[in-house]
Amino acid sequence: MDRIPESSSSDKPGQGHETILIVEDEPLIAMMLEDFIESLGHEVRGPCESVAQALEAVAVDGFDLAILDVNLKGESVWP
């Protein structure tokens, strides 16, 4: 009788190695987010301190999801 291989957690959508963009202008918060995300086994893009910097990072490399500060030194991150 053949055994059915067990699926690993990385086979499930949203459970694997994700690339996460951090957009945060407070260095301490950005470092904490980066450390936490990396400890979960994900790759970090950034951190970016402005919308312009984040758009440059997106143009160079893609990402799976982003964590955005809603107020970057007075600059809104949404229209």
| Multimeric state | single chain
- What structural class should be given to the helix and strand makeup? alpha/beta
Total number of helices: 2
Q: Which strand-content bin applies to the residues?
A: 15-25%
> Radius of gyration in whole Å, from Cα?
16 Å
Task: For the record, give the distance between the C-alpha atoms at the N and C termini, rounded to a whole number.
Answer: 59 Å
Percent helix among the residues? Answer: 25-40%
Q: Outline, from the CA principal axes?
A: globular
Main sheet: strand order? 2-1-3
User: Mind describing the biggest β-sheet?
Assistant: 3 strands, parallel
Order of helices and strands: EHEHEEE
Number of strands: 5
Indicate the low-confidence ranges by residue numbers.
7-11
> What's the pLDDT, averaged over the residues?
84
List keywords for this structure.
79 residues, alpha/beta, three-stranded parallel beta sheet, two-stranded antiparallel ribbon, 5 strands, 29% helix, globular
Explain the overall architecture.
The chain is of the alpha/beta class and 79 residues long. It contains 2 helices and 5 strands, in the order E-H-E-H-E-E-E. It has helices at residues 27-39, 51-60; strands at 19-23, 43-48, 65-68, 71-72, 75-76. Mean pLDDT is 84; it is low at 7-11.
